[in-house]
């Protein structure tokens, strides 16, 4: 299923990749390459300052923070015309580095880091840019969004979302957001199994399947008298009898006893 999710993420990312560009807002740290048609001496590549200004020949500091690339082009052209430098200024801006428009992708992904966003980007797009969920990753992805000082947290079950085709749950991201891929839950199997120790808890995994994850019983092992050590809702550790078709929970410790016969 994980391969299916990674394939789906990649396909969706390719589908929307061409939508980028028009809605990008310039901000501090962005690197902009500017040129003016017919005036090669006005070409410049500069970084937007912390105050949102960029340096442009003849004009000095121009406030471009919070403007789209197209709006900044129009503003610079207007200033050149009003200043009497050009009659019909055709300005072209290209944002070569979008340091201000980045989303952090952390946790169990193949390439964690900060990724630039251009235009409309969603959680699956950013997961694809980060190389997809790695083998230790679980089904749950946490999205932390900051909108005008209000921090909100969303939890997305990406496997369930893709399986059901409910892409309305694939939230749009913005600069400063954080995407965190949770580690897959782990449980432990101890006693008379071939490979005691931790194992990954798959969706709706049964105790019988957990025994298989542990390599099966040893020659002395028995499925009779299986016990699970589990914490209840209050955090109290309890030991309960287990059947082969019981569902395993993250953090469980499954004890396999030695056969008496």
Brief write-up:
The chain folds into 3 domains: 2-17 and 101-183, Outer membrane lipoprotein wza domain like (Outer membrane lipoprotein wza fold like, Roll), CATH 3.10.560.10; 31-97, wza like fold, CATH 3.30.1950; 186-256, Outer membrane lipoprotein wza domain like (Outer membrane lipoprotein wza fold like).
Architecture overview:
This protein is an alpha+beta fold and 261 residues long. The protein folds into three domains: 2-17 and 101-183, Outer membrane lipoprotein wza domain like (Outer membrane lipoprotein wza fold like, Roll); 31-97, wza like domain (wza like fold, 2-Layer Sandwich); 186-256, Roll (Outer membrane lipoprotein wza fold like). The protein has five helices and 15 strands. The chain has helices spanning 2-16, 69-82, 123-129, 158-164, 207-213, and strands at 31-36, 44-47, 53-56, 60-63, 91-97, 102-107, 113-116, 137-147, 150-157, 178-183, 186-191, 197-200, 227-231, 237-241, 253-256. The strands form four sheets. Strands 7-6-10-8-9 form a five-stranded mixed β-sheet. Strands 12-11-15-13-14 form a five-stranded mixed β-sheet, with helices on one face. The model is unreliable at 1-22 (pLDDT under 50).
